[in-house]
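Researcher: We're teaching a course module on how sequence relates to structure. For the next exercise, students receive a sequence and then see the predicted structure as tokens, so they can try to spot secondary structure elements on their own. Here is the exercise chain.
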Amino acid sequence: MPRIPHTNCVVDSWRRQDAARHYFLTHAHADHLKGMTPEWSYGTIYCSPISKALLIRTYGLDPNFIVTVEVNQTILLFLDEGLSVPMSVTAIDANHCPGSVMFLFEGFFGTILCTGDFRYSPVMMNHPKLKDKIVDQVYLDTTFGSPIFSSFMSREEIINSMETLMRQHLEKDPKYKFLIGVDSLGKEDLFVALSVRFDTQIVVDHHRMVTLEILDSEEVPKKCFTTDPQNGFIFAKEKKQVTLNKIIKAAEHGPCLGIVPTGWALDQSSWTGKNKYNRETGIQMIYYLPYSLHSSWQELNQFMKELRPRSCKPVVTTPGLHANTSNFTEHLNPEPALPIVFPPAYSSLYKPALGHSIKEQLYLVTEKKTKRRRTIIEEEEEFNDIEIPLSQSTAISKEEEEEMNDLTGLAKPQPRERAWHKQRGKKTLLSLTLVWYCEVFLEV
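Model: And here is the predicted structure for the students to work with:
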């Protein structure tokens, strides 16, 4: 996710060079946490309570850097240090995985909705912050934004299908074991339903059990799960563990079947269209069922039809089907957006927070974010015009010469200087000298 336009806020991005002040996490899936490390301390993170608990458990982050936002809660933030540029943020249930939320940003820049990963539900549009609201821009989850993925099973349909499939095989042999491939977070409700219907515990590994201890609630009771393989015949596995070769190998110790609920089941050209059958026996060993925690093609169209934003951008920027939002342009609101009135303190929004990249200080934030504040040459000329007091003595000591070079020369940064504040690899004009100059003379 890129920066929210005209703000110092980013969503699901953890790069130090983002130079943001406010960071928002939609949910705790690994692909939305790229760049996160245990040492991460560049700004305040806003997320749901479940995501906070998972962040602390997985990365050992300092809880002081994390602010929880409950579902349906609206918080007031300020984009500048002077507390003169307010913005409100509302967390809305994303119907994706435990702790997942959408974020609705409202401020001088308009109204912007970031869906993160979400599965559309009609009740979403009944939210008071979305009902009868004109959204200027939506960052849309287009994971399955293609007519290929027309529709997915509902939660009740996938549970019934899995139960039917499993009972059919248990009738053939009551010793059958079932390996169900899912992500490390999400679809726990399916296992809870199967646990109740078959009156058995779901076998999980120790890593997943730690997550389940965090999720332990009335909806996802921990008692439905176990780490003892002798206490159940339904196993929750990572998708990569439910492959044909591994199922065949497991079948050497008894009848075994793999089940993978995934939206990719509708794309026969993907990995779901291959390696389902045992070539020697011709028996189907893996079933891919069209169910997803992402929105289907029809659901995306319905969501866009009801939301009617003025513009739409993809959350997923991977080239191909994922980044395609042209299929939804017919649902855009043709009404022109109101002109943005930039507050006086706007130019200060991009000052680095907690030691961020100095590069942001070389730009003036305007309606076009790419416009230069001034050229690098202008920076150098202004620097060269500064009068540096020289020693009256014609003989300059080595120490004085080195000090003058630090002040007047944009010398190539040495390894020690490049490591200053971890600004490794910066070019000459972003060396330690320029950093010092900006701090002293520009008061940034």
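Model: If you want an answer key for the exercise: Confidence is low (pLDDT under 50) at residues 352-396, 403-424, 426-430, 436-444. Residues 155-172 form the longest helix (18 residues).
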